[in-house]
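Field reference: sequence -> structure
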Amino acid sequence: MIHTRRIITAAAVAATVFTLVSCSPADPSSQKTEALGEATYALCFSAASSDMDGESQDGKVVLLKDDGAFTEVQTWGMDMCSMEWTEKGLFFSDMKTDYLIDGAGLKSFENAKTDSQYAMLATAADTAVGLYNLGFSDVGYTTQVVTTTSSGTSLTEVEGSYFIAAQCEGEVFGIGLATGPYSKTGDPDTEPMVLSQLTGTKDGKEKVVGSSTRAREGAVLNDAPCHDGKIYYISDERRGGLDVAAKAVLSIWDTKTGKYESKALISDEATEPFISEDGTGLPQVTRQSLKDGKLEWYGVKDSIMSTDIQTGRTERKFTVEAYSDNLASSKAIFTDADVVIMADNNDGSPYRVLRYDRHTGEEVGRAVLDDDPANLSSGFFFRGFAVKP
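Structure field:
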């Protein structure tokens, strides 16, 4: 089936606000003006940071409707791109610009930054905070913190490297290895992990709330859940590298006291490791993963799992039509009622978004992008996924 797509380039964003033109696989000749409200999912594609030159359009955001129709916004690229969708609209960024697309169209704000991202989290309906991996400095490691609203954007820099991020009670927190003035050993295998508050501090810098030598880096999460001031996720507490067996635990950080605790995952029925021995396909949680005292997560090849936050007891709830390992990069987002999976199975099958009822495991929705994955990705990597609230 042939269909047309209108590409919106970052160079054209100077108009500040404009509308998108849709492309429907069912009727490629029929195009109409639409607002963001007709899209229900967003996919982010980008070149790797090592391949970006700042001169080429090295990324794009695909806006997908339930019927498989989609539009594209071409960008300068952002490796490991993360997006935030609130009632106000969809926030996303590239290395030169911050964007908000809402019912009126696309707004852009020039804001040069690095080319690799950790996370983007909403602190209010009209405010999103992005964390960006600038890298080593003369005194430690630098993360850029970008705050975007409907009227503008601002950038500050803080110390640290934060592959785990969460929003707790309106503030953004990051978790990562101690760096710079907080470093204790200089050895990644013995360095403590720190919990830092990255927004809302008195001096606008990071505030280290707590540290732990037991916590490990075994997680990459751009939107970990926070409940009653505590951040929850599944991680790997092994030490000694990949030659040592994985040690899956429920990790809990208290943002008020800085205390870290963990609970080993236990199960009477597990037949596969909770975490891959090769360090790939890490368990995924998002802000609404916590439900009825259980942390629900996507992992163990193709399953939705459930872990009791009091005991660590873990069970498989159901399997899904997607997987994530060293080749595939499917992603999951938990909503109040559903778990939504963007299936990137790296097997030649179409990109597709699948909705499952969190309670029953029944598939309740499916949106298939009617295009060859290689053509749709344009040679970029699938990096980010967002769901309309």
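Note: The two ends are 31 Å apart (CA to CA).
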